[in-house]
Prior knowledge:
By secondary structure, the chain is an alpha+beta fold. The protein has helices at residues 2-27, 78-127, 133-180, 225-228, 270-273, 286-291, and strands at residues 33-48, 53-58, 65-66, 71-75, 182-184, 189-194, 201-202, 207-224, 236-241, 249-261, 277-284, 301-307.
Amino acid sequence: MKKVLLFTFLVLVFIGLYFYFYIKKESKIPEGFAYGNGRTQTTQVDISSKLSGRLEDIVVQEGDLVEKNQLLAKIEIKELNTKLQEAIAHKQQAIENKKYTLEIVNQKESELSLVKKDFNRANNLFKSKSISLAEFQKRETELKNAQISLNAAKTQVTSSEATISALEAQIETIKVNIEDSKLYSPIKGRVLYKIAQNGEIVASGGKVLVILDLMDTYMNIFLPTSQAGVINIGSEARIVLDATSNISIPATVNFISPLAQFTPKEIETKEEREKLMFRVKVKIDSNYLEKYYESIKTGLPGVAYIKLDKNAVWPEHLNNLPKDLNK
């Protein structure tokens, strides 16, 4: 019985010491500061396919670090390559047609030149009454027909040029689609999920991967009206994670929600107004994220502390920054 009592006493002492050194320590936050619990979060970027088709290869795995503009996956392009070759062949045929019509134009221009000379002679002879009106009209008709033939040939050249331009645009579009079949990372980050697998058919706009933008890691906390009302964008903050409770991570406030949450149906008294909670986003300092980039993890619980008074001095246990970030 005595052993049980002794054991119970020691447990109570241990709990008391823990409360004093940890919970009590954290609760001793001087005036001019606010704090709230939360978990680290990171912005997620969806990698989607612009084209529909079969996934030929996903070259990254979940958890991989990726660089900006790194190739992540490829869509099969056999059909696009076939279309490209067909368009190139049609363009070449259109070019040959244009050459042929240009030769016809040259021929029609020569014919028109001869007909013009005949007409001019006939015109002079008609004026001198050396030929009949019928003969003159015959030469005039020949001139008009020659001009029409030349215009028709020139129209064919213009049509060939339009066909060539259309095929060039088609070829360019196919080349763009071929390039779009390669999915690149728009950011430097880490692969969170593989939504699709090799060999699967993805629709246009279908998700293939989800990437974490590690340089945008933050913590959301909720503060009452009295504190949220005096915080500003850019207010200095610290984040202390449970996993590394002896280190304070530098951060700043970069978002304060304009809408309250946990709002009561009717707000009449001061006590009820204090129930209004506002979401505050505390973003970790980019220098810290860059330095510890490969070690960044999301979902870690912790506490974010924010300066309400910019002249306030951080308490000692919240001023233990990572050594390489201390000035």
